[in-house]
Structure formats: structure tokens, C-alpha cells
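Sequence, please.
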């Protein structure tokens, strides 16, 4: 059963000009994105900077209001949620921000930061809230002695653990992770990811995980969506996407990831030109100007729709034949 569903989600940012500051044109940051996330599942979004990954998560959490489309959480359309209903959603949906150096209030101790969710949503006594905070710190690999310190006294990895503790404080059903390991050393990344997997199993979390690091997505995601210029171009299971990428952009993106085995020779797919601007009129296929398979009169005129090419593997490309996703995919051990 799906916990989260988006339908034709859109986010257009106006570019204003003139004396009256009227919108002259728009940046199409997200342009018609639809997907579902099942309960207890981690859905990973990958793509280049500016593809709209973080914007999607912020719309889901009502940090920004979508220009169009629907967002269903537990069967309820939340795009128009306000007041008391929105406050109730805040407790059920949480976010871990990308930068642990700016996501924590520097003027508050860890105890004060982690007590806030209980004070706002649970109205617990001070003693009970403090007990909950100590439990949270232990769950993310910290201890009670850290509670009275300020954020500047911690390393980046420790700060992100505090941010994760804050996100899970109210036992939410859904958590949006916005590049939670991007600013951390590789060894610290591994510790944080291991902790996240343990917490997901403990709380049964449903997650949206956004990152540039494809290897991180491969480790944590059950299903994967690949975004390019505000559009989903491919979705499928973790095994299908990584073992049998079908969209030309997905292939190029994955070819840029170095292999850990120095003896493995990987062919790098070099894309010509630059990413098409998201401002103003765009080609029907956003990848048209860089795609090695593009056909004029088709790809630049008829927008490719996500379609099932086998076993739930969805691709938005005219050049990918039906049945391409039926290839035998090795299961992860």
C-alpha cells in the first residue's frame, strides 16, 4: 500500500521584470512528476544539480507550495492543508537537511533543540522530554553527555546525527533525506548510512532519499527514480536500474561513476553541450539536445511519457523498445 503519491507535480518559479515586477517567464524546476512510495520503502532520486530533486521533497513537506499537481499522503490530498491539519502533518512528515552546519540553531543546546518537537507537538513534561532526548541521542550513536553542548562543539558527522535524532523524535511515518551525507567524509558517510538503515528498520520509516552520490542510492534505496531537467526519465527497482539502465541519460550518468576495481575498464559516455535551460519554452524531450539517439521531428516534437517496458521498469524515451526491461536482472545478495 502506498503512503505517498504525487500526480503531475509542478513547480514554476517566476522571473519578474519591469516596473510592476510582473512575471515575464518561468523556471520550470519540476514539470509534471508522478510517482508513489510504498509504506516502509525508500525511494531514491538521482540526477544532476538543478534537476528538481530537492524541490520535490520541499513541496511534499509543504515548505513550498506547488504550482500545480496533487500530493496524497496516506490517501489524503495535502496540497491545500492549512492550520491544524498542517500541524498534524508536520509530526508525521520530517526532513533531514543537507547541511548539518546550518540546519541546527547555534544558540540552543542539543537538549533544547531535541526538546522542541516534544514541546510543540506532544506537550510533555520537562522531565519526560529530557528522558526522551537522552534515548534519541543513544539511538543515533551519541550519549547523554552531549545533550548540554552547542552545535559548534560537534563535528559534521555528529551534527548530522543530531539532525537525524530531531527528525525521528516524533516517530514520523515519512522522512525526506536531502543529501544527508554530501558534506561528510567517506568514512563518516558509511557510519551515518548504517545508522539510517538501522533506524528505518526500527521505526518502519518510509523515505525519500535525494543525493548526487549514486553509490549511496544503490546502498539505501529500494526503488530509484532518475531526474533530468524537472522530469522523471526512468524509474524501477534498485536491481533493475543499476543492472539494466535503459534511458540514454541514465547510462551516461552511471558511466561517470568510477569502479572500485582498478582493473575494470568502464566506457565513459561523454554528452555533448550543456544542460538545456529550464527557462521558457523547452523541447518535448528535455534530453533532446544532448541525446545520441535523438530523432528530429519526433523527440523534439512529441514528449515521451513514462511507460512500462517490462517488470515495472518505466522509461520516458521513444528509442527504448517495449520489453527492454524484461532482461534477467541479478538479485542483490
Amino acid at each position: 500500500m502506498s503512503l505517498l503519491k504525487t500526480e503531475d507535480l509542478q513547480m514554476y518559479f517566476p522571473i519578474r521584470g519591469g516596473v510592476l515586477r510582473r512575471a515575464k517567464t518561468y523556471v520550470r524546476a519540476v514539470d509534471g512528476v508522478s510517482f508513489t512510495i510504498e509504506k516502509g520503502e525508500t525511494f531514491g532520486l538521482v540526477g544532476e544539480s538543478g534537476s528538481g530533486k530537492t524541490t520535490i521533497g520541499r513541496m511534499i513537506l509543504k515548505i513550498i507550495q506547488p504550482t500545480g499537481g496533487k500530493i496524497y499522503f496516506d490517501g489524503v490530498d495535502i496540497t491545500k492543508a492549512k492550520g491544524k491539519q498542517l500541524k498534524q502533518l508536520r509530526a508525521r512528515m520530517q526532513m533531514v537537511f543537507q547541511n548539518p552546519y546550518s540546519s541546527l540553531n547555534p544558540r540552543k543546546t542539543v537538549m533544547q533543540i531535541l526538546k522542541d518537537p516534544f514541546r510543540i507537538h506532544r506537550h510533555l513534561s520537562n522531565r519526560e522530554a529530557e528522558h526522551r532526548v537522552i534515548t534519541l541521542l543513544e539511538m543515533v550513536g551519541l550519549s547523554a553527555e552531549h545533550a548540554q553542548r552547542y552545535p559548534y562543539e560537534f563535528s559534521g558527522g555528529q551534527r548530522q546525527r543530531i539532525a537525524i535524532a530531531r527528525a525521528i523524535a516524533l516517530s514520523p511515518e515519512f522522512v525526506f533525506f536531502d543529501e544527508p551525507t554530501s558534506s561528510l567524509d567517506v568514512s563518516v558517510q558509511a557510519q551515518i548510512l548504517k545508522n539510517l538503515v538501522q533506524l528505518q528498520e526500527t521505526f518502519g520509516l518510509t523515505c525519500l532519499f535525494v543525493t548526487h552520490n549514486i553509490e549511496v542510492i544503490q546502498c539505501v534505496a529500494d526503488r530509484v527514480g532518475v531526474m533530468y531537467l524537472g522530469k522523471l526519465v526512468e524509474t524501477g527497482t534498485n536491481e533493475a536500474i543499476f543492472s539494466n539502465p535503459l534511458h540514454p541519460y541514465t547510462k551516461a550518468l552511471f558511466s561517470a561513476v568510477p569502479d572500485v576495481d582498478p582493473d575494470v575498464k568502464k566506457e565513459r559516455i561523454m554528452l555533448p553541450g550543456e544542460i538545456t535551460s529550464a527557462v521558457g519554452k523547452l523541447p518535448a524531450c528535455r534530453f533532446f539536445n544532448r541525446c545520441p539517439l535523438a530523432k528530429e521531428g519526433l523527440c523534439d516534437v512529441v514528449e515521451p511519457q513514462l511507460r512500462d517496458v517490462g517488470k515495472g521498469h518505466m522509461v520516458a524515451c521513444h528509442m527504448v523498445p517495449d520489453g527492454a526491461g524484461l532482461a534477467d536482472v541479478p538479485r542483490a545478495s
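Residues 222-333 form one domain.
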